[in-house]
Specification:
By secondary structure, this protein is of the alpha+beta class. The protein is built from 20 helices and 15 strands. It is 29% helix and 14% strand. The chain is elongated, with a radius of gyration of 28 Å.
Length: 762
């Protein structure tokens, strides 16, 4: 795996700050009473209305395609013979890469991307025993000499993928070349003595070129072809076709396929930047290479909507099967263009970013220069290993089925409680009409507040619709989880498909604080919903593909930052505090859902940055407590995100709760939160130094509107803490509050679900 290329995509926000030296920070773990799991030790030792600083922002002009639902069509296997494509062994547990592979070596011939932040590709799967998955293109006439170039990414699997050039027949044994793509190696059918030295890594992009010439071919003289892999020419060879009469006139069909007719796969085969040329381009001495090549066909799939079936023109409808357009995360080519701010083609020369952008183990810690009264901050780049927690690569996903809590175990636990108790902790008074469809938002969404320029259009009604969607999904998720109400599932699937088909939120204004925060609230609610229902048999497989691709298109953009858009190397409050903490909780869970360790590790790094740079010695969050009358609200919500990060890691076997940096741990922050809720003067000592607040909030810093806003629902995360440490003194101080009738059901929308339903124990 090419770590340096991975890191640009997924760890970008951690390296965009001014950097300094290392750290000799020592850590002393706390002793805590854990009850549900015993995670692997980390040591060898025995907001709802979040605002942001006023920013001059540049509006984005990006385009993200949308996702219509598709109904699988019955494949036509006429004129196909894949019986000899069987591979011994079948699919093995643990062989699959994640379903949203990281782009580590993007194609070098893609210059027409229509979207800066997602890469559309062809995704081929094999879920049928009657046919292989295939993308096939038919040329208008046989081409005597020419070239095909493409990029592929194959997930790890015991089953093979193929690139095949056919003549007049599509029986694979008669093909001019049938390149077999195995698990890291290549073979060519009917050329058993040929050993191809080039290898590849599953889950990484590979560039392939195949040139052919049939001008001298007859029924007894084989056509010639040349194979090039990642720029390295394998050599020039004679075709191994079993019937030369079928290939002597040239190439008529090009096919990319996966699997065989006898079994199904859980992996995928991705194709990008497909191009077909006519004319000679051989490097061998037999060919002059002077004839001009003509582009006959090219497709980088950016002009197709993600989720669209490719069983359409210009691909051969009868034989293309189980091939769709799919949106992968942001790719290296485009992120490089963004980072090359001075336009010299080199990242890190005069651009305001550290030269060690690719340092996989680095962690950038930013903190205020003063505890109160200043917006100034300093950033220092440290090594992850300085914290004494091993290497960041040690933190891998161990249970992709658990995001924040074990749903199966919790379901069984709720079944032991009286129904009245379950209803009281799992119901919020937000009734949902399951027969209705929520009008989809447009692709662009800017939120309802904080105008930063004349080019933006704001619509409060759009914001209300987004929040309506989010709240309805929270209720419906609990209804399915507790009551198994299939109407709730149907409601969520229909509305997700509706929003996917219109591309809602896919062109969200990433440089605008209001809209990005609203997107996070929407995303976490939908993520929990999809965790609860995404594997149900009552949802059609085609609909699952569309929804998961749609969610990936949105959530994979979570790691883009407003300060990149502004051309700044320093973070704003959007990343340093509640926005950034919230973002990485979602990244962590989406990483688990898609089995992506790199996304998961973002949360591990974020947690250390919180302890190392954002807390005072009393456990208060430096920036959030300086926000006038809403300081306690923002502080409480931010600590909630930190606890959520710790619990997500705990469920994967990593005890962040016990981590201490410079004498500060999460328990200190929780203790301050509880004490500040009980005694607001602990906050007002800081809230008089306003950093970010409206005029009214700044003027009323002495009166915290914590209870008037959302009160104890802001502190819903404490349900998680009480469950994790039921016998702690802090839990004892809290338990009485959560038994009061008005707090039977505790919910905060930045946590994504009804927290009392998920965690409260009796």
């Amino acid at each position: 795996m090419n770590i340096k290329l991975h890191i640009v995509i997924l760890f970008l926000p951690l390296f965009l700050f001014a950097c300094g030296g290392g750290s000799d920070t020592q850590n002393t773990p706390s002793t805590n009473n854990d009850t549900d799991k015993t995670p692997e030790p980390l040591f060898d030792e025995s907001p709802e209305n979040s605002d942001t600083d006023d920013l001059d922002v540049i509006p984005l002009d990006d385009t993200v395609d949308v996702l219509p639902s598709q109904t699988p069509e019955t494949p036509d296997s006429n004129n196909q013979d894949y019986s000899d494509d069987v591979v011994d062994g079948g699919l093995q547990n643990g062989d699959l890469e994640n379903d949203n592979p990281v782009i580590t070596n993007p194609a070098d011939n893609d210059t027409t991307q229509s979207d800066e932040y997602t890469n559309h590709v062809a995704k081929i799967t094999d879920t049928l025993t009657t046919d292989t998955g295939e993308l096939r293109y038919q040329l208008s006439a046989p081409v005597e000499s020419g070239k095909i170039s493409l990029s592929f990414l194959k997930q790890a699997s015991e089953k093979d993928a193929f690139i095949t050039l056919f003549g007049s027949s599509t029986t694979v044994s008669t093909a001019l070349i049938d390149l077999r793509i195995k698990s890291g190696s290549f073979e060519i059918r009917n050329l058993d003595t040929l050993v191809i030295q080039q290898t590849f890594v599953s889950g990484e992009w590979v560039n392939v070129k195949i040139s052919w010439d049939t001008t001298q071919a007859t029924e007894s003289v084989a056509p010639l072809f040349t194979l090039t892999i990642n720029g390295n020419e394998v050599g020039e060879f004679s075709s191994g076709s079993s019937d030369l009469s079928l290939v002597k006139s040239g190439v008529e069909y090009v096919g990319m396929r996966l699997g065989d007719n006898l079994s199904v796969l859980e992996s995928a085969y991705y194709i990008d930047n497909l191009a077909i040329f006519s004319g000679k381009e051989f490097s061998g001495t037999e060919y002059s290479g002077t004839e001009k090549q003509e582009v006959l066909f090219s497709d980088n799939f950016e002009n197709h909507k993600a989720g669209t079936s490719l069983k359409i023109a210009p691909y051969e409808n009868n034989n293309t099967n189980e091939a769709i357009v799919y949106g992968l995360p942001i790719d290296l080519v485009n992120i490089s263009e963004i980072l090359d701010l001075d336009g010299d083609g080199i990242i890190g020369s005069e651009d305001p970013f550290p030269n060690n952008l690719y340092n996989y183990e680095s962690i950038t810690v930013c903190s205020r220069t003063e505890d109160v009264g200043t917006k100034d901050h300093e950033c220092e780049e440290k090594s992850f290993m300085d914290y004494g927690l091993g290497s960041i690569t040690d933190y891998k996903i161990t249970d992709p089925s658990v995001l924040l809590f074990d749903r199966s175990a919790r379901k069984a636990e709720l079944a032991t409680y009286p129904q009245e108790t379950v209803d009281s902790i799992c119901t919020i008074e937000k009734p949902v009409d399951y027969d209705r469809k929520i009008e989809a938002l447009p692709e662009k969404y800017y939120g309802g507040e904080y105008i930063h320029g004349d080019d933006y259009v704001y619509d409060d009604a759009e914001k209300e619709r987004l929040l309506d969607f989010k709240e309805a999904f929270t209720v419906a998720t609990a209804d399915w989880f507790v009551n198994e109400n299939e109407q709730a599932v149907t409601f969520m699937v229909q509305n997700l498909l509706l929003w996917a088909e219109t591309g809602s939120l896919t062109e969200i204004d990433l440089a605008h604080g209001r809209s990005t925060f609203d997107m996070k609230r929407w995303s976490i609610a939908v993520l929990f919903a999809w965790e609860a229902i995404g594997n149900l048999d009552l949802i059609a497989d085609a609909d699952k593909l569309v929804i998961e691709s749609y969610l990936n298109t949105i959530i994979s953009r979570m790691d883009y930052h407003d300060y990149i858009e502004q051309g700044s190397s320093e973070p704003t409050g959007l990343d340093m505090y509640n926005h950034g903490w919230f973002k990485d909780a979602i990244n962590m869970m989406w990483g688990i859902k898609t089995n992506n360790d790199l996304l998961f590790q973002l949360g591990i790094k974020r947690y250390l940055r919180i302890l190392d740079g954002h807390l005072r010695t009393d456990g208060s969050v430096i920036a959030e407590t300086q926000r006038g009358s809403v300081a306690l609200h923002y502080h409480t919500v931010s600590v909630g995100h930190a606890v959520q990060l710790a619990e997500i890691a705990y469920q994967q076997g990593y005890d962040l709760y016990s981590v201490s940096v410079n004498g500060l741990d999460i328990h200190k922050a929780v203790e301050y939160t509880i004490s500040a809720i009980e005694d607001h003067s602990l906050v007002t000592q800081y809230s008089q130094y306003q950093l970010t607040c409206t005029e009214e909030q700044c003027n009323n810093w002495q009166v915290q509107d914590f209870n008037e806003r959302s009160g104890w629902n802001d502190a819903a995360f404490l349900e998680i803490y009480i469950r994790r440490f039921p016998d702690s003194e802090l839990a004892k101080r809290l338990r009485d509050y959560f038994t009061l009738p008005e707090f039977n059901s505790v919910y905060h929308d930045t946590l994504g679900s009804i927290t009392s339903c998920d965690f409260r124990q009796y």
